[in-house]
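User: For a reading group we're discussing how well predicted structures match intuition. Take DUF2461 domain-containing protein. Before you show the prediction, I'll give you the sequence so everyone sees exactly what went in.
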Amino acid sequence: MRIYPETFTFLKDIADNNNREWFMAHKDEHDRAKENVIEFAGELIKELSKVDPNLDASLDPKKAVLRIYRDIRFSPDKTPYKNNFGIGKLTSGKNVMHIGYYMHVQPGASFIAGGSWMPENDQLKKIRQEIDYNADALKAVVDEPEFKQLFGEFRKQEQLKTVPQGYSADNENIGLLKLKSFVAEHSFTDKEMMTEGIVQKIATICSKLYPLNVFLKNAVS
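Assistant: Thanks. Here is the predicted 3D structure of DUF2461 domain-containing protein, as structure tokens, for the group to look at:
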């Protein structure tokens, strides 16, 4: 299973023609591209469930593929359609809806991500508390050489400009405690995404994300 060239072509075209008239005239192309991504999501769910036993292998891939329609109600950008397909709802267990995996399919910008993006305040407090109590467990994951090679420096995500309440600036783990998100991502070229075996490659990479999700899940449970 792979992403077909026609899917990337559709996404490139809608980026250049982001209006309802063009979309309705090319709806068949959208439907074929979406079906490709749904099939891709089905294989990805199957492979990820082998890596992460907490991920529901029976998840309907149709429900995992996000809508292409943008929510423009509160956005200054009024273009109606996304120029990508997202595969979400790949959560790492029950009651941890913000901890899991996300697959992004976009020409020149495809990636797999894991962890927790901008957790809500109650979860954020629990994660910071776990870091304060058990930072060595997280550092053993994110400072591991292969993790850094695949995902880069974990601490270079967006951080608070000030010290979080309840912690001191001289805390040895302040770089982790100031994080607003706890996400790692790995990018893929279009050529990689269009090559057979890419789903298995993504799953192998996610095996390195799994320990991060375990740490976060334990923190909020």
